[in-house]
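Hey,
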Amino acid sequence: MTLNNQSNTPATYRPVIFVMGFRPFFLGAGFVAILTMTVWMLVYVFGWHPAWLGLGSLPAVLWHAHEMIYGYALAVIAGFLLTAVRNWTGLPTAFNRPLQILFACWFTARILMLFGPLELAAAFDIAFGLQLVFYIVRPIVKVRQWRQFGVVIVLSSLLAGNLLFYLGALEYFPLGTRLGIYFGFYLVIGMILIIGRRIIPTFIASGIGKPITFPNLLAVDVGIAVTYVVFLLNAVFLEFSIPATVSSSALFLLCSIRILSWYHPAIWSKSLLWTLYVSYASLGIGFLLYALVPMVGLSPFLTLHMMAIGTVAIITMSMMSRVTIGHTGRSIHSPPSLLNFSFILLCVATLFRVAGPIVFPQLYYELVLVSQVFWITAFGLFLFLFFPILTGPRIDGMDG
């Protein structure tokens, strides 16, 4: 994804980090990925919970789930869409002062979710969500790009899911907390299905440097869209029911067909290609594991973490890397050499968190700890590589 040469952002706007949405939100996502996982490791594995660490007055597991979805993942989505919609429509989304306010709401909510109070965290988080939807919807409506409204619907639904979570956490709607977590998580997966279908075959075709087209089969597209709606509703409201299990099995088959149609052996030589492929393949495996939970007694947390680390973490880091490199005037064909190691760390983290407990259930906490360390190291390396790029000007002298 690249911008056209016409800039919508005057060069007088500084600091450069607030010129385009991907800059602050990708930095913030990397920082939150490290901070929240470090806190979760200390709390979950080592039992550390000082009085000043409020975690929004929530059980630690709910805080962890919420911040991974509505803290980390939503920040990546925000940075991507604020940049992509500007590219799709040719109109600005949020930059300079509006972007500063938008980011401040998101970041303040993350701090308040650590230390409290929860009511104030909710106010800032919902304010962030409302602004984000506005900045995404406005340019799409202006140019009447109605085909982009699928993304708008998912983004608006994520806002509704976050609101449900807070209504539950503040005891206005007891079921809201659970519904907000699962609804939000599967909406993120749904957005990956929507956007991945559009960008993964295109990026692979352009990245391997050969004249090749990867077709999207209409029957597979329709099948995934319909089946995923069935899966999402049943997974949220009737967890591991027969319809949820059957639809997840169908999604495994459909995603397998799709990923096989996108395959080319040249992807393995390029870190920004094989990561897209592996993350989407992990999604299919996640659906398979979901179907196996009631059949063979697997822990439901295995399927969640297969999707959370193997799919969400890897594809979001890959997209953040690609967008950052491309929109700062660098060549996406020459990413930092150490970046590949960061992706490998996330793959290993997935193995320790998902496969490890199946093989060595007696070492569960030790395996979780190792996975957490790999996660923290991967995102630490990501920040090390991209902090100077995200905070510095484009190398070609253009704005953005």
